[in-house]
Amino acid sequence: MEFYQLLKPDFYVSNEKGQLAQLCHEGWKQVNVLISPAGSCRGNHYHKDNLECFYVVSGQIKVVFTTIDGSESEEHVFDKGDMFCILPNIVHSLASVSDTVLVALYDKGVESDSGEKDIWSV
């Protein structure tokens, strides 16, 4: 079963001026920045309609991916510079191994025009 997809930023450059990572140039409706201290946990939910993509700006995050019925799961640790996309209907829990900064992108956005949220607890 596929729980997530590894992605690469569209463009990356590092030189004497610093670094630039262009994560995308189209296709995402909502972008969030998450700052989490070491030992904190987020998630334990899923999205029915959204692809949710993360880019690890700094730190390290352990993600547990699980099917909605709990029959299958997989764990992966992502490091600075990793980019991955969680598929719809995959439960995900994120535990910060170290102080972590993430960028989260949603293809449709969590809040619909009607005000309903595409965040579902298990």
- Mean pLDDT score, rounded? 94
Low-confidence stretches: none
How would you characterize the largest beta sheet?
5 strands, antiparallel
The largest sheet has its strands arranged as 1-9-6-11-4
What is the total tally of β strands? 12
Strand content range? over 45%
Please report the distance between the alpha carbons of the first and last residues.
19 Å
**Number of helices, where a helix is a run of at least 4 consecutive DSSP H or I residues:** 0
Helix share bin = under 10%
Structural class: mainly beta
List the secondary-structure elements in sequence, H or E.
Answer: EEEEEEEEEEEE
Compute the CA-based radius of gyration: 15 Å
Global shape: globular
Question: How would you portray this structure in words?
Answer:
- With 122 residues, this protein is mainly beta.
- It is 0% helix and 57% strand.
- It has a 5-stranded antiparallel beta sheet with strand order 1-9-6-11-4, with no helix packed on it.
- It is globular, with a radius of gyration of 15 Å.
- The mean pLDDT is 94.
